[in-house]
Amino acid sequence: MRLIENWFSERYSDNLQLSFRIKDQLLSIKTDYQRIDLFDTYDFGKLLSIDGTVQLTEKDEYVYHEMITMVPYYFNSMPSNVLVIGGGDGGAARRLLDLGIKKITNVEIDGNVVEVSKKYFPDIASSFKSPDVKLIVGDGIKFIKESKEKFDRIIIDSTDPVGPAEGLFSGDFYKDIKSHLKDDGIVVTQSGSPSYQPSALAMANKGMSEVFKNVKTYLAFIPTYPSGLWSFTMASPSEMKLRDGPVKNGKYFNSDVLAGSFYLPEFVKNILR
Ligand code: AG3
User: Fold this and answer.
1) Interacting residues of 79 by C-beta distance below 8 A, sequence separation 6+
2) pTM, 2 dp
3) Which terminus of the chain faces fewer neighbouring Cβ atoms within 10 Å, N or C?
4) Which domains, and CATH codes, for the chain?
């Protein structure tokens, strides 16, 4: 018999939080970079939190990971060489493998995220077993400065722009990114909740617009992230055009979502102005 109800809450502000009733806390560690917690929730399965913010849950990770990989995939020429910065859970790499990408480099700063994911989300982290995925535990900012390679897509799957990920939203970083993108390559980043974190979206948009002529924001509904409404921002040195041809359905993603996610509410357009 359980007499005590346990809850994990992600605190959005002094006055707002989202709470998950949990069966158990499976892990809590403090790494050199951040605090990692793992909960077994009633409604969303296992939940990974970094510094108190929800990174993924078993139940709805598909939305985020499909949207950060599949949307940019269908623009410009077919990508074959993709870099993921962050994404230590392996979720983005897994969707890229599903799309048939044969060369994926994944640079994650905190090896503990990889280990935790392998242990608690073996399906998601199975991508790291693929010979097509090269995992580098290291600093993405340093990697991009030192690498000589050019990529078709660069996917920035980071935490919010506070703490270790802050530099991943700056114009300086996007400048380095640009020099590692092919001419019609595309960079994409998660850019926060337009409702609760308009400054994250404004920051990504501003940083990218300083460096790239072409910048586009798109939206998705992610139930376990702040406000549920989530933004992604992508940019390219070339005009971004959809390729002709059929589109693969995900669990969230389909051809309607591919077109519709770029239709922005007026308050979102205002953040971008
Ligand atoms: N990384 C972005 C999560 C941002 C969520 N923010 C928040 N809950 N405040 C997701 C990692 C999945 N690979």
Assistant:
1) 72, 73, 101, 152, 153, 185, 186
2) 0.97
3) N
4) 6-56 (2.30.140.10), 61-272 (3.40.50.150)
3-state secondary structure 28-78: EEECCCCEEEEEEECCCCEEEEECCEEEEECCCHHHHHHHHHHHHHCECCC
Task: Answer for the pair 253, 221: CB distance below 8 angstroms, yes or no.
Answer: no
The 10s digit of each residue's pLDDT in 193-223 is: 999 999 999 999 999 999 999 999 999 999 9
Our answer to whether residue 184 is catalytic in this structure is no
Q: How far apart are the first and last CA of the chain?
A: 55
Candidates 55, 63, 67, 232: which one to mutate for ligand 1, based on the most atoms within 8 Å of Cβ? 55
Burial 211-233 (b: 16+ CB within 10 A, else e): bbebbbbbbbebebbbbbbbbbb
> Which residue's CA is minimally distant from atom 9 of ligand 1?
53
Task: Give yes or no for a contact between 133 and 95, defined as CB atoms under 8 angstroms apart.
Answer: no
* pLDDT band, residue 162 (cuts 50/70/90): confident
Name the DSSP letter for residue 262.
T
